[in-house]
């Protein structure tokens, strides 16, 4: 049946006790017509099952943390192996050394790493570290980019936020806002100008090398190279937020695909195999500033949590499988091309971006290469498309800003079924 009674009932209860009925605004259906979000009870491979027993092909994929699909045996087994020996010691553990070694080995710009419990904390700390290293204060970031929910990066942020039509979060002290300069992504001139005028005060330029938070927007040729060069010329550090991009398009950080070395790299999502994680890393000279070696403080009860370490290691091990990234690329391409074709047949103007298993669908006839371009994507059309897909058993993030993530568990049949649903969904838009 098409009943959503169980989700609706849970949502009614949730509304009375959790703000907005959800624990992350990005989970709410506020931007897609409201009502009860689907409450999911189980995941298996490419599928999610909701409280009413419906099965969905999932492309939300834990907002990108679930690259192997849901409940992959090797990761679940690793968690099962570790859990009985104790959930948390608050001491160093052998597993964290293994994951440290793995990340430092695979990402050449990272000599030393530190784990946190989330990407938010890792970005927050990376900014503090850049300020400690340079002795400067200002942060340059890019409009619409999401870097977690610490104060400075919620200035002109995107994702969850823009979905609800909020430009800057309330509650950020004016002093914090004064130290943040937000610029359009993919344009070098505004950055050049800011660095020319205020470079002496800029501690860091923070960027997602491939944007994954207003859809998926790759850098224009030469853009990142110029960004790094100019930041360094101004004595600012470059922070690459690779929370979404690392281990997404290949085994390692995306910076190496561009042949670039940021000063600080932020990691998260995939490296925790579906368990809570964040990390920041840099060359030794910078990481030596972190306590106890140096004066920049970061700590955390959950940092390097044993279950996150076990799940992360098992996930990274599984990602070494021969041909896995090539398969994600193939499925991604098929899905992207199929979406373009289906939209074309239905007369719906769209842009579809794709890299590996990551896909963005924009309801606009104009090319998208920055946040303003993404903003032109028709929210109303997206909302109706989202609903039509949900009804046909395809689960997307309830926001036009979010990427679709194909996982290693998705099959060609899943993609074809998705495209059949999409063809109907596009046709239903008129
Ligand atoms: N940086 C980027 C690029 C992200 O996409 C996210 C989360 N979507 C974060 C930081 C924050 O990570 P977390 O949700 O683990 O705090």
| Shape category | globular
The distinct bound ligands, ions and cofactors come out as: 4'-deoxy-4'-aminopyridoxal-5'-phosphate
Structural class: alpha/beta
The number of helical runs is 14
Count of distinct structural domains: 2
Q: What fraction strand?
A: 5-15%
Name of the CATH first level of the largest domain: Alpha Beta
Order of helices and strands: HEEEHHEHEHHEHEHEEEHHHEEHHEEH
- What about the largest sheet? 7 strands, mixed
CATH second-level architecture of the largest domain: 3-Layer(aba) Sandwich
Average predicted confidence as pLDDT: 96
Query: In terms of per-residue confidence, which ranges show pLDDT below 50 for 5 or more consecutive residues?
Result: none
The main sheet orders its strands as 4-10-9-8-7-5-6
Q: Assign a percent range to the helix content.
A: 25-40%
- Gyration radius, to the nearest Å? 21 Å
Q: Separation of termini?
A: 26 Å
- CATH-defined topology of the largest domain: Aspartate Aminotransferase, domain 2
CATH superfamily of the largest domain: Type I PLP-dependent aspartate aminotransferase-like (Major domain)
Number of strands: 14
Report on the structure:
The chain has 430 residues and is of the alpha/beta class. The chain folds into two domains: 169 residues, Aspartate Aminotransferase, domain 1; 246 residues, 3-Layer(aba) Sandwich (Aspartate Aminotransferase, domain 2), CATH 3.40.640. The protein contains 14 helices and 14 strands. Strands 4-10-9-8-7-5-6 form a seven-stranded mixed sheet, with helices on both faces. A hairpin with a 2-residue loop joins β11 and β12. α3 packs across α10, α11 runs parallel beside α14 and α13 crosses α14. The radius of gyration is 21 Å and the shape is globular. The site of 4'-deoxy-4'-aminopyridoxal-5'-phosphate has 16 residues, from α4. It is found in: Cytoplasm. It catalyses: (S)-4-amino-5-oxopentanoate = 5-aminolevulinate. It is an enzyme of class 5 (isomerase).
